[in-house]
Amino acid sequence: MKKSSANLLKTSLFLAILALALSACGGKGDKNDASPSTSPSATSSASPSASPSESPSASPSASPSESPSAEASQPAAEGVPAGYKLFEDKTFGTTIHYPEDWTLQENLVGIAIFLAPLEGADDKFAENVGFIIEDLGGQAISAADYLEITKQRLPNMLEDFEIVEEGAAPAEEGIDGSYIIYKGAQGGNELSWLQTIEVSDGKAYIMTYTASRDSFDKYLDQVGVIADSWTVH
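User: That's the sequence. What structure does it adopt?
Assistant: C-alpha cells below.
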C-alpha cells in the first residue's frame, strides 16, 4: 500500500474499533499512587523480531522532551485541526496530529508518545498514545501473525491479562491490519489497551492507546483523531 501523504490507519477501521472499545472497556478501576513518570507508555507491542522488547511498554522519562529529529509546530499549521499540533519526525518521515494540551515525549523504542494531561491532584497515571514502525527484516509476517505473537507474549508481561476484543481490518478496505483490546495490571495500575497493527512493505505500523480503566472512554475521540492523522511520507 502506498503511504506517501496517505493516512496509515483508515477511518473505517478505527471507528469500528472505537465502537467496540466504548462498549467493552468502560469499566471503573481505582488509580493508585504510582508516579506518571513510571507509568506504562503506549508502545505495548510484543515485537516479532529477533530481539523483542522484554516488556510490553517503555516508561516515559520524568522530563518530557522531543527527539532531535522531531518537530512540533504551532496549532495553526496548515491542515491541522483546531486545538491540535503537528508532530513531524524526519527520521521516520512521519507526521501525527496531537491535542495541544497533551505532552509530546521522546520515545526511546519508537517514534513518539503523547501523554494526556493529568485530571487532578489524585490522578497519577497519564493516559497516552504511542507509535512504532518496526522493520520486519524480510520475515513473511502478516498483521494477523504479529497479533498472535503479541498475544503469546503479553500474559508474561502483564498481571491478570485478559483479551476483551480482537479482529482484522475490514476486507473491503484492502488493509493488512489487525487490532486488539485487552486489559491487565502493570506497576500496580489497572489498565486497558487498544492496539492497532498494520503491515505493509515489510514493516509493521503499530499504534497503542494505554489508559486507566476509569478514563479509557474519555479520550477515545481524541485518540481517533490522533490515529487517523498518522501519515508516512
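The mean pLDDT is 73.
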